């Protein structure tokens, strides 16, 4: 017989379509373990946990858990909260340990991106330092796909599928008129071009489409851009331009947001957006009047109705694997995906030291971008194509996805 | 035995997700008639037909026709072209009749919105005037739902479903943080609020959500708007604001586009957009900083991947019925939908004089908007709910919808 203890799961950062699949996987795996008694949820990530905002997941009717599995947006809520270094300020860490003790928590799973992995790193190190026994594992999620030491991150495949589908629909729409249209699509992804590049995945379906893709990995040169667009417009008429929200010029100024470059979010990242407007205006003034600009905004990270099945299943698998590794004694690690091959696509999980992952950004390899810096190479297609495969049958009711906000189905612990 | 003659089908105006269902329905019905020999397609609407841009639809492999049925964007291309009055300029009409004679066309079906119905009216009247025998029938389509004398128009239900689903996803996403978010969603629909109102259809799924909806039917009063938002923000925190691109102030100036109010498209309609930016700025400056604005733009009319089954099937039915009525001898008419009841929803087709329909706009009844002018009443829900029901199983291939641009599968007639 084992001595049973409890586990805690929380979510952090910007949500993805499949962030709840990882939660679902972790809950399911934890609930079948003989070592784990109760499964707790931390509401609003680390920020909420410090405040004692904890729920007992087994209190939630299973019907709601199933519904949550197919819902976008972090079911346990999220935060953008950065723990200070414990050498500077130990207060929050003490509160955390108090909570862990109160609920007899020996396993803590944190589903999130770059900054969440920083929390995993700090908490696991602090616990080791003070001799508190706990296994802390990070479960990756980010539509930006910018986490290091994992082939890709859950959330990316679904966002990529949504962006490619939208590209396809917009490009077809533009082709109905004799009058030509220049489409401008602004895509998320901060400093990594993965999502923006995904717009290229329409290539097989629309081989005739002239696409120009501008990624943050390549400094944006306005003159060269105008040459590209002008040439493409003259040769093809219809042109589809996809730009990353994080485009920067040679000096590192965000395009279209020079005046706002110092407006930061809680993690200290500049808040982006506005590139689309800038590019739209530029093309209209310098090249051609009929420009249609689409800024998908947050829809890219919550379009569960178009989730990729591969992504959905991998997210769940990583949730499960994280629990297995924690039970095996691992801590201060992030669970990761290792691609075995592309055709047919197979993947396995591994585990990496989280301090190698956090506070870094994985960008598109420069040799996956063409020489002109305005499109991607075959390597990118091989990489991204498997990740958008398959559809998730989201339950529907009365014409709309049967989503839930778990918040309204849970009771807080006293 | 009948003497066989040919029919011509064309599409016009802004596409919808299901405009090709009507085309498919018309093709299928025409191809089973003993009176019809060949089915021709007019490329790029009236504008292309005048130039002799005609294809033989039976030349297209049936596999492509099936694929087209599930593709957004007008498969035969579209135009924004307004015929002059034939008393003023008969030239174009003579060319049209020439084409009709050359291809022995006795039936002409025009799938489109308000302005396309104007063409149906003018062509049928001209033909009658000069004694040329042809049956001209209009098949309604518009996401704006602003056509008179039909309960609703194909295209609306699918766009409404897309907008409601996006509202649902964005609202859930905003709820993950403790920090509150004011969402601003800019929706199409020119001078009619139907589409913007559809954002309200999330009510049953998110009963706790505070929504404010501003329609072009109610003059926009900035002071009252700020009061509404301020009150909602103080009471609820998260607020979801949906605004129509066609919002106007009491003097008839488009909100956020005062400087551009005279920028017109080819039909003489002002080109809209910019409301979302204006509202975002206003709320940020006067009420609360964390505002997320989404402008879906053209995606609203081409998101076939989320089409409503009711809409899809009605669009096809109207295509078929138009052919039946034409064969029965009708001309100068628009096929229309008559709702029989809401629960269970049933609908039948009828036919109306097209001159009653064209150049008018059906707006939201004022008593379907609440007294405060910032939300809809139960009547709207009863009306719109049935129209977003059911899903269309769009064929998928390699992770993306298996759409086609028919243009690349057809040969032009000499």
Automatic annotation (TrEMBL), chains A, B:
GO terms for cellular component: cytoplasm. One of its GO terms (biological process) is fructose 6-phosphate metabolic process. It comes from the Bacteria. The record marks 141 as: Important for catalytic activity. Non-allosteric. The record marks 115 as: Important for catalytic activity and substrate specificity. Diphosphate binds at residue 14. Residues 7-324 form the Phosphofructokinase domain. InterPro entries: ATP_PFK, PFKA, Phosphofructokinase_dom, PKF_sf, PPi-PFK. Belongs to the phosphofructokinase type A (PFKA) family. PPi-dependent PFK group II subfamily. Clade 'B2' sub-subfamily. Homodimer. HAMAP family: Phosphofructokinase_II_B2 (MF_01978). This is Pyrophosphate--fructose 6-phosphate 1-phosphotransferase.
């Amino acid at each position: 017989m084992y001595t049973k203890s409890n586990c805690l799961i929380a979510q952090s950062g910007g949500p993805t379509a499949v962030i709840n699949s990882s939660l679902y996987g972790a809950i399911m795996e934890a609930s079948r373990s003989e070592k784990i008694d109760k499964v707790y949820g931390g509401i609003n990530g680390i920020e909420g946990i410090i405040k004692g905002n904890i729920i007992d997941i087994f209190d939630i009717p299973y019907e709601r858990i199933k519904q949550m599995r197919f819902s976008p947006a972090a079911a346990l809520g999220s935060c953008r909260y950065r723990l200070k270094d414990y050498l500077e300020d130990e207060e929050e860490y003490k509160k955390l340990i108090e909570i862990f003790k109160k609920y007899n928590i020996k396993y803590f799973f944190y589903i999130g991106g770059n900054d969440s992995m920083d929390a995993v790193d700090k908490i696991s190190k602090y616990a080791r330092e003070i001799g508190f026994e706990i296994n802390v594992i990070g479960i990756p999620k980010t539509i930006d796909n910018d986490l290091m030491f994992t082939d890709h991150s859950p959330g990316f495949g679904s966002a990529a599928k949504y962006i490619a589908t939208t590209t396809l629909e917009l490009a077809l729409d533009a082709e109905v008129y004799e009058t030509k249209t220049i489409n401008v699509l602004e895509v998320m992804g901060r400093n990594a071009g993965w999502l923006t590049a995904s717009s290229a995945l329409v290539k097989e379906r629309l081989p005739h489409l002239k696409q120009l893709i501008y990624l943050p990995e390549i400094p944006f040169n306005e003159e060269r851009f105008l040459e590209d667009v002008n040439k493409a417009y003259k040769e093809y008429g219809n042109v589809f331009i996809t730009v990353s929200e994080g485009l920067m010029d040679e000096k590192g100024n965000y395009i279209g947001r020079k005046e706002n470059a110092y407006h930061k979010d809680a993690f200290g990242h500049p808040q982006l957006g506005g590139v689309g407007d800038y590019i739209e205006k530029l093309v209209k003034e310098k090249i051609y009047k009929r420009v249609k600009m689409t800024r998908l905004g947050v829809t890219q990270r919550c379009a569960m109705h178009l989730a990729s099945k591969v992504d959905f299943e991998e997210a769940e698998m990583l949730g499960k694997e994280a629990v297995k590794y924690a039970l095996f004694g691992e801590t201060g690690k992030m669970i990761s995906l290792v691609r075995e091959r592309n055709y047919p696509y197979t993947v396995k999980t591994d585990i990496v030291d989280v301090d190698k992952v956090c506070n870094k950004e994985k960008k598109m390899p420069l040799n996956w971008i063409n020489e002109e810096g305005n499109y991607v190479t075959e390597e990118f297609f091989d990489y991204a194509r498997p990740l958008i495969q398959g559809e998730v049958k989201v339950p529907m009711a009365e014409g709309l996805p049967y989503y839930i906000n778990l918040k309204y189905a849970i009771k807080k612990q006293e």
